[in-house]
Specification:
The protein has about 170 residues and is α+β, with helices and mostly antiparallel strands. It has 5 helices and 4 strands. α2 packs across α3.
């Protein structure tokens, strides 16, 4: 209680724990297998985990319902569809535009060629993973979507020579 008899408040805001219930070993094993191969048939997955297919399906659906599994996506080799070049574009937003950072990131994610947008801490506000047919395509993306945008203070482009996927082994 404070001096006026009211409950004391702290400057720290409490945030709800996003994990609604902890993952058990079976959930973790299931996630690890799905990260390795999201197209694995349920009966094969169940056999690998040593559980009944109905248990495996129920667990997978529960992980989806809880938002732990957000979806299943194709891993595309962009060079085989004519997009031979990838880049990471670091983007710094002007201080006057900072109130709309998240909205800016969402708009950027909708631009053609954008694979991922990361909102980051540090010298830049966003890292934008883009794909294009060639250096001219990367230059066009930066010039049209970023350099000419009044919200942008600066950009720095790094070409990706090789994209090596992680194992997803944190799970």
């Amino acid at each position: 209680m404070n001096a006026q008899g009211s409950p004391a408040t702290t400057s720290r805001r409490s945030r709800p724990n996003r994990i609604s219930s902890p993952l058990d070993d079976l959930d973790r094993q299931l996630l690890a297998e799905l990260v390795r191969d999201g197209r694995i048939p349920n009966n094969v997955l169940a056999a690998r985990l040593g559980v009944a297919p109905s248990t495996c399906l129920t667990r997978t659906k529960n992980l989806m319902k809880r938002g732990i599994i957000r979806g299943f996506r194709a891993d595309v080799d962009y060079s085989r569809v004519g997009a031979d070049l990838q880049a990471i574009v670091s983007v710094r937003v002007r201080p006057s535009a900072r109130s709309g950072l998240l909205e800016f990131g969402r708009r950027l994610a909708d631009e053609q060629g954008v694979l991922n947008v990361f909102f980051v801490a540090g010298a830049f506000d966003f890292l934008v993973h883009v794909v294009a047919p060639d250096t001219e395509g990367i230059r066009e993306f930066v010039a049209l979507n970023l350099s000419g945008n009044a919200e942008i203070e600066s950009t720095q482009t790094s070409l990706v020579f090789e994209h090596i996927l992680g194992s997803g082994s944190w799970i």
